[in-house]
């Protein structure tokens, strides 16, 4: 599984990465977590507002911090 956290490195972006890392570790999920700060790559996903979370190429959320429950749901699909 490839997980990308899109954002400039702001506190909200870091919080999303923290949530994802925590859930990946707790659930022993084999995933590569990448922090994407390159604005061109972020725009390639059609994301205009960060933070955003992309799982296996699919933008799951943009512009806000998702709940742990929601992230867990996405990771278990």
From TrEMBL:
Q: Which residues form the active site?
A: 10, 13
Which intervals hold domain Thioredoxin-like fold? Answer: 1-75
Cross-referenced NCBIfam families: redox_disulf_2
The record lists its disulfide bonds as: 10-13
User: SUPFAM superfamilies, from UniProt?
Assistant: Thioredoxin-like
Family statement? Belongs to the glutaredoxin family.
Question: A Pfam family in this protein?
Answer: Thioredoxin_3
What is the recorded name of this protein? Thioredoxin
**Annotated function:** Does not function as a glutathione-disulfide oxidoreductase in the presence of glutathione and glutathione reductase. Has low thioredoxin activity in vitro.
Provide the species name: Methanococcoides vulcani
Keywords carried by this UniProt record = Disulfide bond, Electron transport, Redox-active center, Transport
């Amino acid at each position: 599984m490839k997980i990308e956290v899109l954002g400039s490195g702001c506190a909200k972006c870091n919080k999303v990465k923290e949530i994802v890392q925590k859930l990946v570790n707790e659930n022993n999920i084999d995933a590569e977590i990448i922090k994407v700060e390159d604005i061109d790559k972020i725009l390639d996903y059609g994301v205009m507002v960060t933070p955003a979370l992309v799982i296996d190429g699919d933008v799951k959320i943009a512009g806000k911090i998702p709940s742990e429950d929601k992230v867990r749901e996405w990771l278990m699909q």
